[in-house]
Amino acid sequence: MAYDEFLAERMERVYEERRVPCFAKKMFGGVCFMVDDKMCTGVLHKQMMVRVDPLFHDGALKKPGTRPMDESGMKGFIMIDPEYVDMDEDLEYWINLALEYNPKAKSSKKRT
What we know:
The model has no long low-confidence stretch (mean pLDDT 91). Strands 1-2-3-4-6-5 form a 6-stranded antiparallel sheet, with helices on one face. The protein starts with a helix and ends in an 11-residue tail after the last helix. It has one domain: Aspartate Aminotransferase, domain 1, CATH 3.90.1150.30. It is an alpha+beta fold. β5 and β6 form a beta hairpin. The protein is built from 3 helices and 6 strands; from the N terminus they run αββββαββα.
C-alpha cells in the first residue's frame, strides 16, 4: 500500500458530507483531492497533506504533529502525522483550513 487508503476514504467522506465537488488524483506516490482543479488535501504514505494559505503556514506548523511537506521552504503545504487526525474533528479542522484557502489558491498550469 503506497498510502493509507482508510484515511483517504475518511477524507473523501468529509467532502461528500459537505457536498464539496472534488476528485481524487494519484500523485507523489499517494492521492490528492482536487477541488476546483487545485490540490487541496491528500494522503502520502500514512500522513495527511493539506494546502493552506501561505500566510498561515508558520502558525499551522505550531500545531502538534505537523511539518512542512518538503524542506525547500515552499510555504502552504503541511504534513500531519496520522495520530493527529485520528479524531474526526481534527481531520475536519485541517480539511476546513484547506477549503478556506482553496478559492484563493492558484491552480497549477495545465500541460499541453
